[in-house]
Amino acid sequence: MAVDAPVGHARTFTYGIPASFTVHPGQLVWVPFGAQVVQGVVVELSSAEPDFPTRDILQTVEPAPLLNREHLQLGQWLSRYYLSPLFAALSLMLPPGFESRVRTTVFPGEGKLPDGETLREEASEALQTLDSRGRMTQSDFVKLLGRRGARDLNRLVERGAVRREASIPRPSVAPKYQAYLIPSQPVGPEPVEGLPNLTARQQALLEVVRQPPQHLPLPEANREFSARTVETLWQKGLVAMKWLRISGGPPPIRPVGEPGGPGRLTLTPEQGHALAEITAALDASAGAGPAAPPLSDRTFLLHGVTGSGKTEVYLRAIDHAIRQGRRALFLVPEIALTPQTLERVDAWFSGRVALLHSKQTPRQKFDQWWDIRGGSFDVVVGPRSALFAPVDNLGLIVIDEEHEWTYKQEETAPLYHARTAAFELARTTGAVVVLGSATPSVESYYHASRGRLRKLELPHRVAGVSTQLTGGDRSIGEARDGEASDGYETESPPSLAKVEVCDMRRELREGNRHIFSRALTAGLRECLASGNQAILFLNRRGSSSIVQCRDCGHVAACRRCTMSLTYHSGPARLLCHQCNYSRRSLTECPECRGRRIRQLGLGTERVVSEVSDLFPGVSVDRLDSDAARSAGSAEEAVARLASGETQVLVGTQMVAKGLDIPNVALVGVVLADIGLHVPDFRSGERVFSLLCQVAGRAGRGNTPGRVFVQTYDPENYAVHAGSNQDYDEMYRKEIEIRQRFGYPPFNQLAHIVYQNADADAAQRQTAAIADELKRRAAAEGRSDIDVTGPAPGLPPRLRGRHRWRLLLRGRNLADFLSSTDFPVGCTLDIDPAHVT
Ligand code: ADP
Ligand code: ZN
Questions:
Q1: Inter-axis angle of helices 339-348 and 310-323, nearest 10
Q2: Alpha helices in 324-383 (DSSP H)
């Protein structure tokens, strides 16, 4: 049994099953745990008598198992790999919205404290209050007891002075079940008359139950034949009971007939090749389950620039899977920012698509879970959590924009990556996996080059994309219809937007101190004057202040780990957030002896106000995670841009994703360097992919797009490769750095953050953990393991708690870490997406 309590990862507990009911693996139940009642998931049944005392399961939450075998296995794998409690891993796959807390109520008891045992004043007052009120919630009572209230409560309960009762809540969104009476044995031709000891009434009820459709709603039976009659027949074993869920609303309408969407396009040869490989893998794995061909034969990396026709390939692959009678999961990085893709999926598989999104009410989410499980949908679309939808007969998992970090859960355990988990789910289900991206993650590309994934390339944009997006004089469909099937070759494919790199050092040398270069200012003016829209982009995630020389672009970096140093005020110091190296701040540049040193730190508000100053009267909007936090406002900002109301949108990386606004003719990256020098080994890769995406945002319409990238460091490989959209250049440089420093994919990383309200204790405890890990690595001969830190977290303080961090590099880290007991306040992140 996996229980809902803060227990070690992968830990399970043994419970007895009372004679009054049966349970199955995957079933959700209530169990006693310590002094509490908590939920548990049955993981395994055993008939062996344990040689230790066990307690019994109290009752089931649901009459039938909620998790199938593959999902149970996936949960167990997640728990082991990400070192998270098993229940937390399994609950990813449970229906959303079950009330999982037990409410405990306390009552005055009969018992008395033994003579000589006294209570603190606070406690006896609390007891009087309880006496006068008759009952209280346990948490209120503990508050009255004051300091050490929990311990006092236990003593009072032991002495019988307080009685407590746990009430198991009904599910907050109750599934609607109906009990039916069914025949307990197959109905044969023989009449039931001859049965002994049956009253006429019982006989009549039995007749009704045995008549087609052979199930009678229990309430109806009780009404017409009395509850006594029903009970007697049931006890005699002449009828059985079955629980069936009544669906919330009307069943979704499923158009009968062939699946299939528009399908009018003729695929390019590259698309055709990619699709053929995927469908061959689908055919080879159909019906095979875990016995399907090895995972490396049925996982694909579809690498193609924006507009190269990847989505078309996904849709046809999904179509193929559905024709096989299988189902598909389609993961997208962010629902709000991928409206076009979602519309296409929905249009193609109309009526058979379940879309998971955050705006759904708990009730809707809950009903949708059951409808998916009931088989109402062939395709489930959603963010990373959609991977855990209760889909049976899974044939295909598509992960669009696989490089996006939103696929990594970074807040609550298990801190899983949807891509890694998808491989595991595919392993047990026999599903095919397709990862797609214009800028694949360095890890995926490396695995593909080593044959662990199959690489499929779509190197060119499909012809006619831009005409389609303008909604102009002819659409793609028309173009197709009137042309030969090789029409894509006769039209010249639209090129990606032109990228201009603005050297901010030169701007400064030539007397321009403004945050916008002269080229960007002129470009903006032109763009606005011709009635077009612009997006200004600022990379702010992990926005530590770095220190940079404005003359030569040099950034202060740590000599030991090449990470950029972070500026700390007070006595001005520079600190490495990886290894804790620290030095005095710079007053003179070590490279060029220049003295114009400054901290980089620039916010979206500042950019908004600069635009308003330069172009009075122009409507400027802001989209960043602060602005987007209030639900729906991201969508609203996008809608205002799409409607033309907003002329200039200023935003963080959120705006780089998936926006296809034909009228956006200019994109400016205000300062590429901010993202570049975030102290994270993936910063180069991220800046590259952002620049590529940003370039893809401009010029989707008639007007050729212009992209401006401002930087103090134009020679940097990520900026250079990004402005040319040259994936190979970035990859070659990046993989060399990764190998040299032992970063993924050459090693695994684990990030350990320890928090404590006490500053000294936080640092000391983290150091003690580091020592212990180093000692064990040495004792076990694990020379591959390297422990860096402790170093201050980023931010070093969060909600009043001091944070310190450790970074582990090595192989099979979950294995190594699983035998260590970490103190409360420790967070373990295996394969972290961010190491700041
Ligand atoms: P990606 O997902 O790589 O950005 P899409 O699949 O969205 O690319 O394709 C971009 C545009 O090109 C879409 O409007 C799509 O309908 C169109 N398209 C895709 N494949 C073809 C094709 N073979 N012929 C003509 N148009 C195509
Ligand atoms: Zn360092």
A1: 30
A2: 339-348, 362-373
Q: What is the pTM of this model?
A: 0.76
Ligand 1 binding pocket mutation candidate from 338, 465, 470, 490 (most atoms within 8 A of CB): 465
DSSP β-bridge partners for residue 108: 162
Pocket of ligand 1 (CB under 6 A): 265-268, 271, 304, 306-312, 462, 464-465, 468, 476, 488
Q: How many helices (H) and strands (E) does the chain have?
A: 28, 34
More confident: 597 or 244: 597
User: SS3 letters for 623-685?
Assistant: ECHHHHCCCCHHHHHHHHHHCCCCCEEEECHHHHCCCCCCCEEEEEECCHHHHHCCCCCCHHH
Which residue's C-alpha comes closest to atom 5 of ligand 1? 309
Give the number of the ligand closest to the Cα of residue 741. Answer: 2
DSSP result, 197-228: T--HHHHHHHHHHHSTT--EEHHHHHHHH-HH
**109/156 Cα distance (integer angstroms):** 9
**Strand-strand pairing, 748-756 and 533-537:** unpaired
Can you read off the two tokens belonging to residue 255? 């158009």
* CB-CB contact of 159 with 114 (8 Å): yes
Cα separation, 387 vs 428, whole angstroms:
14
Q: Note the pLDDT of residue 481.
A: 36
CA of 515 to the centre of ligand 2 (A): 30
pLDDT at 14 over 90: yes
Mean pLDDT of the chain: 82
